Here is the input.
Amino acid sequence: MRYAEVAVDAPAGRSTYSYSVPGGLDVRLGSLVWVPFGSRLVRGIVTAITPQPGYESTKAIASVVDQSPLTETQLALGDWISGHYLSPLYAALSLFAPPGGSRTPQTWLHLAADVDVDALSLSSPERDIVERLRGRTRVTSRNARGSLSAAAFKRALGTLLERGIVVNSENPRPGRTRPLTETVVSLPENRDPDADVSLQRSKRQSQVYECLRSLQRPTSYAELRTLCGASMEIVRALASKGLVETHERRVWRTPLGRLVAEEGPRPELTERQEAAWSRIGRGIDSLGFSRHLLFGVTGSGKTELYLRAAERVVQQGRRAICLVPEIALTAQTVERFMARFPGRIALLHSGLRAGEQADEWDRVQRGDCDVVVGPRSALFAPVQDLGLIVLDEEHEWTYKQDDANPRYHARAVAVQLAQSTRSTLILGSATPDVETFWNAGNGQMELLELPERVAGGLELPPVEVADMRAELRAGNPGLFSRALLDAMTERLALGEQVFLLLNRRGTATMMQCRRCGHVVGCPRCSVSLAYHAARERLVCHRCGYRSRIPSRCPNCSSSRLHYLGIGTQGVSDEVSRLFPTARVLRWDSDVSARDRGDGSLGKAVRQGEVDVVVGTQMIAKGHDFPNVTLVGVVNSDVGLNIPDYKAGERVFQLLCQAAGRAGRGVRPGHVVLQTYNPEHYVVRAAASQDYRAFFDEEISYREENGYPPFSRLVRLLYSNVNERRAQQEAERVTAELTQRAVSDDTKVFGPVPAYLWRLRGHYRWQTTLRGSEPSSLLSDYQFPRGWIVDVDPVGVA
Here is the structure.
């Protein structure tokens, strides 16, 4: 008898549970399995195979979910993620599981044996359920419910189960999306020449047979049907006569069919690129772990170095992973890699269809791909013989998973993965994360600088700061400063393209009553509702709540309601009013869902179908559009006043990244930053595009206040629908942790209402831990339901 330690998908006090392995069941280290847990079947992952059980009494593993077990490297990395981010072990290990697996088994119901249904005293709902089960071997719970309401069905079924009249059982569902196949028809290698005589009686069979002979190759049934109207009956008849053979062939569903990539002339490296490449190449050739920060201005040729690094590891028989921060950026990155590695690229992200995800995953696992491209989840693809990991725009906060366990950061996980696989890690950015740059300065990674653009020796575009306070004093209350308006007029007249950035969606940011000052807010969140003219609705950008436009103030019944602030839709409308012939594209999360990573929005810009692009931060990241010569930041101050120690860093990065979209082709670029705070160090540093000036100010501020990298943080967030209970529970846990921290260097701050005090109907309180290893204070602490533990958060607001 063998036994297995299994990490289960359940709120478990222990990290693993012991199960026996039934004879004949192919259970291996890393297998995904179904196991009984209490009265349910849950998914689990085998972390160890042992000859002895960990406990006296064990249940048996029910079945294997997937025949592709996790590797020892993946098991070890999952264990590190679980320990570092204080997450359940199964949640960490399941990051490596194939896509498409069902998390819940199928529940079946049937009548108990030897039960005389007609003699039972039953309520009407109970009788309905029993009648649907009578005479049937088993019925799904969904079909047994019929027309009963969910509540009535739950009550009636509970009574029937308790009385032993009905028995329920849970059965595993298929673990993966099934492979797609097609029927292929071909001529036999050794066919009887006299068999053709039998075709004289069937004109249709003869036509299909002659069509196949003319093609002289195995042909899919679908193609035959298109070419000569073949039906499956005709194909079967021909096969029965020995004239054709059929077999099933797998069809690979891939998103890459929508992308087109052509290899252009390979660019010559600049002197700076050559210097950086020699260091990277040396690290790759060492066949050991090496880490590099590629600190290069926008347009300095970082992607070309990524491509050459991938080429080098592929030549060595190894493979690469390239991460990008947004799905919207995958198309352009994939096109570059497709041109260099035709037919050997895999694309993985959550926007793919289920079949595409499953097939891309299988291609990677089979070793059919040299490079995997995608956002943070692509880091967990089953890449064999890994030799290179690239994080492009490594500073982006989207590399942090903050909406589910485990709340990992892809950058930290990439370091661990690169170390365990002896791979090269390249972190690339024009505006590195402050902590990354600090670590590079302390020798924890090699700093490689690209201070100049590569395209034709073009300089970074000059940045003009427009003081909107001066605009008001000069009698210009409009959305655009005179400098930006003049620049737009000039660039559009030359047939060039313009990017306008405003990190707010909608037409207006709020609706306010002029009489009492009431702001129409979301009933579930502590934020105002934004006005979207295209939908004629007020929308909450946090929970998605929508409301019709009120005709009167909900507070005082006044009709004097008006809109304040502006979003991307409002900017688009204003551009169309000022430039009626300009073709305007809005690019934000309201419209980018249709992009699905296939680059349709970017393609429209690249092909000159758009004159002005108005967007949120999505347009500032990684795009390369040669004809964009003007970038205008409508409000550079958005985000500066958020109560978060990283607020300034995020605004600086956004401004610099946005400015970097201008002048990437042969025509010089220009940038206009509109601001009400021209003296702010973030705005000044962004205007001069001087990262080191920003870093010096920022690192002094962090050292003075003890923020990372001079400490580590853990953010604890508690939410409850009851306002009083939320505060009481936050105070109780904070008091206990404060007592624990007496003999520790960890400081406990809070509890305080969260920046978003109410979200989706839940009141939220937060406590922050700060110290050299604050998570050690929580290693054995059991948090009740409702708490979120975020280790190394990307912000505390």
